[in-house]
Amino acid sequence: MLKKLVNEYRVFYTYPKGMRILLITNLIYSLVLPIIEMFIGAYIMRNSHEAKLVVIFQLALYSGIPLTFAINGFLLRKIKIAWLYSFGMLLSGVSMSAMMMLHELDATGIGLAGLIMGLSYGFFWANRDFLALETTNDNNRNYYYGLESFFYTLTGVIVPYVVGVFIGATDEHHWFGGNTNVAYRIVTASVFLLTIISSIVVHRGEFVNPKQERFIYFRFHILWRKMLGLATLKGLAQGYIVTAPAMLIMKLVGNEDVLGTVQAIGAIFSAIVLYLIGRMAKPKHRIYIFSFGLLLFATGSFINAGLYSSLGVILFMLCLVMARPLLDVAYFPIQLKVIDRVAAIEKRNQFTYILNHELGLYLGRLIGCGLFILMASYIGEDFALKYALVIIGLLQLLSIFVAKNIINSKY
């Protein structure tokens, strides 16, 4: 066992330094993302008992991302990419702090905190995507995203469990006078510390900014338009599945301790499988990995709607824990390969496509969040929590045909 681990360590060091630094940075920041994704939603539900506010936060977050992508493109002409990347990570702690300082959770305060988090995500993802594009190639991207998904899945086990137990114990054992908001503030301080560490690590890499060229365009090659369609379908699920688990747990189970435990179930197995996929899978296998992830997500949505109980939530979460990283490990290499091909055809800055891709995701996120808000407002929250996922799961299956068409394209 030890020999295998040593061998994997040596394999890791065969890859370029920039790729390794980026992976280590993302490993540290992966400890932060589960807190942002899961426990902000739980915090809002605990203090407001309104699922719509959770979706408003998410919608504000997603609205800030494309705006920041564009701002980031202009700032890259003057500021080093590593600094902007660091700034994005640090802003996530600022957003959580803004949330904790609100005396009353209302749509305005929630929206502002969500917008700040959107700015954070925008700086983080815009620069992360470009650096991933620059430090990898099509032959090693399966390994890169397999290892990155392994990090995110593993931390998705450890972090929600530890944080969930901590918050649950605060309530149960009356730590800090039983005030769970104090526990959330301690978690927020931990987020700040981790973002500082990851910001320091990223500066060890010798990363180069994109070329200072025009990056805003409105007409694109047909292959890129297909990629935008795939991005919109991906965004449909992103608009809801990030916060859906927290809303379902808090509504049907009612405890962050369970939220952390449910996340942990099966995720270690998922992490190992993903690492093996990254090491062994070839580019030709991406469509099969992608299809399986989509089918798994659709299955989980039907189980949740059919049972709509604590058991249904647990089974849905098990499907989601496996499906999300499977989709990412296949989707991102497809996206970056298309960027490589279309940038060469149209002779444009690669950041052009990173920005434009985010607009495709945003359109899907708007539709996904809007679907839930409309259902919750005019039919009822329970109906929305049951059937919005089913509709999104079915629509997402169209991604299989779009992705296959892109992969088989002769361009």
TrEMBL record:
User: Which superkingdom does the taxonomy of this entry point to?
Assistant: Bacteria
Chain segments annotated as transmembrane: 21-45, 51-75, 82-102, 108-126, 147-170, 182-202, 223-246, 258-277, 289-308, 314-338, 359-379, 385-407
A GO molecular function assigned to this protein is: transmembrane transporter activity
Pfam families with a match to the protein in the record? MFS_1 (PF07690)
Instruction: Print the keywords alphabetically.
Output: Membrane, Transmembrane, Transmembrane helix
Instruction: Give the Gene3D superfamilies listed for this entry.
Output: MFS general substrate transporter like domains (1.20.1250.20)
PANTHER family per UniProt: INTEGRAL MEMBRANE TRANSPORT PROTEIN-RELATED (PTHR23526), MAJOR FACILITATOR SUPERFAMILY (MFS) PROFILE DOMAIN-CONTAINING PROTEIN (PTHR23526:SF2)
Protein name per UniProt: MFS transporter
- Please report the organism this UniProt entry assigns to the protein: Prolixibacter bellariivorans
Specify the taxonomic lineage.
Bacteria, Pseudomonadati, Bacteroidota, Bacteroidia, Marinilabiliales
Whichever gene encodes this chain, its name is yqgE
